[in-house]
């Protein structure tokens, strides 16, 4: 999510997760071209702090100018989900990042300075903060102001872009739907001022139907311009279509819903309740179709999704694979979710260590959604690892207490559970060096519009 209009609808949320359109790709390409460690100034929300001057309470040690609010929100939300009460300074930092109008940007180096017209307000960062603070409780005014701001920048089609004023995209619309749901707002009742389109109307706009090529039917595209199936957008939208956000509760019992791909007859969707309908049945069918597309893509690549970032197309995309697991779990597809989850347990540890709090949070939330213990995730205690990236938690519930070696002792170790190989570690290192960190495998990984 960035300052230039041309970039504003190209990147995360992770802007990064957050962070979401093509900004990550644009920033990386620009940084590589310039041979510099800093991303374009257009993305900056303020001076970039040195590692020695990172704010107290902030999670992670990387430059927060692109994903500070995003990674903080995911970290706090994941901790809360597994029974960890974050340190007060960590929560205070997130609350203090809000602009007076209720919006958030990726990072404000000096929260005492009021946001102005140059501040790059970001729906993804704002919606992530809403989900975290709503879960933690006690911040009603902050959350209400943020939700009101999100409603005020809803596009006429019912959706949202990462940067207000830009065309809607599936990822931004999905993360806002998650924020609305987390605060008790019904997305089907949140409508655009002009046209009266609902949030779900906006989201289902990006669904590819029977007029698309067969291999892409049921998938979602990131944006309508140059529409092509996009696994990242599909994972976000399949979750959002069900009215769910980052936290998906594990299914009760042993229920295992079958994956139902979109079927077409005579060029039209077969069966009742067409997916383009924003009604409950249509949304469920849309989520099912998206899940089927994800299962197909995961199966083609050994149960993981592939990166679409320039220069890393042959590398696994761990973050988006975790998002896919959450999407499948949200739809009740227990067996389908277990296969990529098993891949994550074997291969995601090294990636998380390289990328920090938001990466650990994604894995914690994927484990939670599938009823898997995040404290024994492929031999790694994800909760301990996440806690180690920020200030000491205020409290840890009995079941969340860590065991074994402290993850702090393992920082920088890309051996255990890494399974990604030297090439992948080098690629991740390059991404971090380019100044966009988790953006590359976060929710805003939009290198190309299709796989």
From TrEMBL:
Q: Which domain of life is it from?
A: Bacteria
> Keyword Ligase: yes or no?
no
Q: Which SUPFAM superfamilies match?
A: Terpenoid cyclases/Protein prenyltransferases (SSF48239)
Quote the biased-composition stretches of kind Basic and acidic residues, using this chain's numbering: 402-414
The question of whether Nuclease is a record keyword is answered with: no
Q: Where are the transmembrane segments?
A: 421-440
Region described as Disordered: 263-284, 390-416
For this protein, the record's InterPro entries field holds: Terpenoid_cyclase/PrenylTrfase
- Signal peptide position in this chain? 1-44
Q: Which UniProt keywords apply?
A: Membrane, Signal, Transmembrane, Transmembrane helix
Q: What is this protein called?
A: Squalene cyclase C-terminal domain-containing protein
According to its UniProt entry, this protein's organism is Streptomyces endophytica
Its lineage opens with: Bacteria, Bacillati, Actinomycetota, Actinomycetes, Kitasatosporales
């Amino acid at each position: 999510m960035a300052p230039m209009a041309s970039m504003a609808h190209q990147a995360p949320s992770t802007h990064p997760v957050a962070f979401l359109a093509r900004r990550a790709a644009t920033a990386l390409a620009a940084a590589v071209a310039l041979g510099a460690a800093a991303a374009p100034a257009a993305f900056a929300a303020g001076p970039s702090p040195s590692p020695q001057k990172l704010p107290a309470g902030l999670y992670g040690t990387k430059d927060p100018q692109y994903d500070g609010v995003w990674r903080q929100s995911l970290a706090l939300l994941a901790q809360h989900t597994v029974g960890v009460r974050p340190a007060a300074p960590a929560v205070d930092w997130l609350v203090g990042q809000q602009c007076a109008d209720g919006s958030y940007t990726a990072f404000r180096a000096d929260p005492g300075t009021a946001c102005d017209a140059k501040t790059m307000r970001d729906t993804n960062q704002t919606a992530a903060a809403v989900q975290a603070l709503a879960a933690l409780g006690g911040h009603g005014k902050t959350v209400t102001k943020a939700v009101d701001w999100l409603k005020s920048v809803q596009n006429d089609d019912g959706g949202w872009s990462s940067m207000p004023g830009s065309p809607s995209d599936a990822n931004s619309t999905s993360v806002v739907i998650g924020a609305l749901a987390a605060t008790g707002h019904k997305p089907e009742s949140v409508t655009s001022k002009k046209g009266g389109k609902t949030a779900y109307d906006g989201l289902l706009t990006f669904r590819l139907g029977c007029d698309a090529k067969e291999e892409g039917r049921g998938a979602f595209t990131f944006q309508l311009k140059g529409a092509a199936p996009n696994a990242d957008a599909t994972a976000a939208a399949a979750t959002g279509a069900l009215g769910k956000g980052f936290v998906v509760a594990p299914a009760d019992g042993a229920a295992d819903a079958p994956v139902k791909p979109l079927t077409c007859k005579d060029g039209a969707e077969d069966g009742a309740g067409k997916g383009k309908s924003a009604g409950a049945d249509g949304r469920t069918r849309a989520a099912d179709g998206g899940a089927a597309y994800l299962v197909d893509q995961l199966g083609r690549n050994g149960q993981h999704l592939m990166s679409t970032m320039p220069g890393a197309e042959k590398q696994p995309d761990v973050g988006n694979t975790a998002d896919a697991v959450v999407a499948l779990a949200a739809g009740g597809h227990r067996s389908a979710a277990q296969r990529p989850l098993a891949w994550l347990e074997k291969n995601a540890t090294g990636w998380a260590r390289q990328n920090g709090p938001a990466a650990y949070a994604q894995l914690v939330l994927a484990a939670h959604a599938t009823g898997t213990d995040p404290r024994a995730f492929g031999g790694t205690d994800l909760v301990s690892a996440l806690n180690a990236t920020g200030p000491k938690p205020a409290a840890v519930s009995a079941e969340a207490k860590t065991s074994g070696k402290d993850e702090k002792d393992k920082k920088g170790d890309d051996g255990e559970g890494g399974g990604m190989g030297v090439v992948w570690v080098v690629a991740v290192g390059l991404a971090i060096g380019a100044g966009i960190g988790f953006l590359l495998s976060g929710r805003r990984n939009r290198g190309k519009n299709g796989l």
